[in-house]
């Protein structure tokens, strides 16, 4: 699970910035150098205001960091300067006090020599970096860095918000106190008041102890109190602090209404934990937790979910997830990972909790690796175990994979990027079929366990002259197996008895990879480009070893056919099969690069394989009579500054029709405007259409002002299966950006079975410059909508 840092009011942020600015303006020698009067008036202070249509579309950028504390000499200029008996220096008329990164202006400034105090009166204006402050009176002590500001108004760029207070007192860079403070990113002077505002009777900040305390805090939205807390404690700096996080509310079709609130526990600077009580209207009361640590040579995380009594399932439900990696003396690295769920249906009922790419195969593993070097030989010794928890369902059972119990190996490399190179891998594996509560009955020829010892030496020589390359390579895979095999009677019928089978295989492979590189300047559509042409030939010769067909498949599967695997020596992944081959693969790639910055604007290419002799052992031996493989065509790039495309076509030469097609086209004319379409086709299996979007739907204007008061955005993604005749996965929602707050409503539908799906509703109110309230859909939107951008950057 993700750990969120405490969402304390960003009032502490602007207070810190103001304090740094005020204290910095008070630093310097007791004698101020006098400069010529300023030729221009001080820059007006820009306070928070209602965003126009242009501002709403363009103000979304990452908040700026606080400016560094001003240093160096102080420069004072004014229309009139006078000294009164050595007791004080008085500056009048367009008074400007400057220091690197800071400027203070006022109508009148008095400097008291005895206690080194500067008193600014009139319209006091202070700017530091992009932050702006206005007050009626300021008193700063240059020696102690203490002071007070009366009736301050402020705007802090890094928070995109500001406010006002009756009085602010500070003691150097250590403590700050504000009275009758109001904070918002909306216009405080708007008719009817700001859309949202956080008011406090008193705010005390202690930056040394990282403690902030707000008394009489009330958060109002549309003049409706959302939160009223007599006393609120929060971090006073950017460092996290133990405390309660804002509550969240989720709506899920399988869990009902889910309310949770997390407590963040700052154990140490390098260790923290989160505990989150969860109340589900359908499932009951549960608890989630997370513990993280970061040590000099170790890092890890442990997460859990406990539901003592699931009212729907009628039993206890839980999950565990952990990861740890570290390094000990001598360079030994190790890693531990694991996931565990209470039952087979957990992945459907609690799909958002376990962060697994394969929700029905939960991994657990332990690995250790020791690198070393001997002369010019770099080597690594490694060992590990790998297991799985298989979550089954009756209408779609899956075959459990094999576990490694254990794996031991040694691999090494000698040689550089060019010239002679030697690679070798020696590995021992003990395999065992993972246990499962429900699974298809495996074929009798598939053993439940077995052992495999392999050695794979490889010798290559690489020559690269820039305009071309050549790499001949010789590889040998030697394997020895020991596993229980079924016994057959004289008629070839399996008797149901087993005996230990000892099998071995030695498969040599020779390959030759070569290619050329051409390039030329090209001007197209007003762009200064560099076009490359890279033809490539790849020859492979592997003799047939028919005995491999009777060996078990412990970790081996057919490689996905794509623009990279078509140039591979072997059509399989894993160590149990090596396809026989007497083949040549030919293809070419052309790239269009920008000569200004070297970015790739477009890539086009093709590749096809030809078998000189008919292949006997391979994943495609029965796909057709032609010795030509499918033709692979691919392309990707930026067709225009607004258009992006990515497509792959696998064309079957026997059937004269596409075997597989994947294409994506995205139109992105500007920020927060993206429209993408996806087409996925696999002959005889599936055909899918996808659509994703983020687009402004409507802009609301203030009556008679011509200014935009807010923009509605539509967001979503849908995947429709033509084969099944249904919408498999869908995401749709609306975002409303008023300029100082954002409201999001998103619904997500995810297929969890042949005829079942889970629906999840997320509602969030983001008060810009303060916090986000509700369930967070932002990660879902970024992951599923191509080109999606946050209306407000993190």
From TrEMBL:
InterPro entries per UniProt: LipoPS_assembly_LptD, LptD, LptD_C
GO BP annotation list: Gram-negative-bacterium-type cell outer membrane assembly; lipopolysaccharide transport
Chain ranges of the LptD C-terminal domain: 316-700
One Gene Ontology cellular component: cell outer membrane
Domain of life of the source: Bacteria
Keywords attached to this entry: Cell outer membrane, Membrane, Signal
Subcellular location: Cell outer membrane
Leader peptide range in chain numbering: 1-26
Free-text function comment from the UniProt entry: Together with LptE, is involved in the assembly of lipopolysaccharide (LPS) at the surface of the outer membrane.
Similarity field: Belongs to the LptD family.
Subunit structure: Component of the lipopolysaccharide transport and assembly complex. Interacts with LptE and LptA.
Protein name: LPS-assembly protein LptD
Organism listed in the record: Ideonella livida
Chain's gene name: lptD
